[in-house]
Each structure stands twice: as C-alpha cells, then as structure tokens.
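hiii, so i know i said id send this last week but things got crazy w the move. better late than never?? heres the sequnce for the chain we talked about at the cafe, plus the structure i predicted for it. fair warning i was half asleep when i ran it
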Amino acid sequence: MPGILTSWKEIAQHLGKGVRTVQRWETEGLPVRRLSACNRGHVMAVSSELDAWVEARRKVSSEPQTSPPSNVVLECRESIDASRNLRFQQSHRIAEMLELQTSIDSRLRDILAACRKR
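okay and structure toks below
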C-alpha cells in the first residue's frame, strides 16, 4: 500500500531523521500506530499524517511566542514602580526641606541682625 510505513526505520527515512529521534517524537504526538500492545517494536504510520504533523510543528515553532509575563516579571515591575514612586516622594520632600532651610536661614539672619542692633 503506498503511503503506509511499517517500521521505525521506514518512518525515520521518510522524515529524514534517525530512528531514535522519531521514537522520541512519538511521545510528542507523532502519529504512529502500535500493531501490538505487547511488542513495542512493531509500528505503522501513514506518510501523509506524518507530513501534516511535521508541518504543524514547523508552524507552531515559527510563530512568535506571546506568553503572558511570569509572576517574577510582574513582581519586578511592581518593585520598579514602587521605587519610582518613593524617589518622586523623596525629591519633593528634599525640595520642601530646602525651602524650610532657606526660610530658617533668613529668620536667623534677621534675629542676629536685631541682636547686634541692641
């Protein structure tokens, strides 16, 4: 029958890979059929199904991965945002302290000037 492959060797040759590689691919969903549940060596596959499986894997592996950010990334972003917020608050407090320092310096000068006049 054309398109029917009846051994690991034929399947591997059809796919252009080694026997161990296609046996490993069986665990990843390679469409092969076991001829006997007792004997792991006897398999069969349809070449068109194999070709479709390989093509589907190519499409999946070539698509850009758009997975959502992991929890670690989200935690880092939250930490960065919190750090930015603290720096913003700190800069405003420093500005307020400088204004107070200027005011205090001015008042001290006034007090010293008044004391010298006495």
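btw The longest strand covers residues 43-46. thought thatd interest u
miss u guys!!
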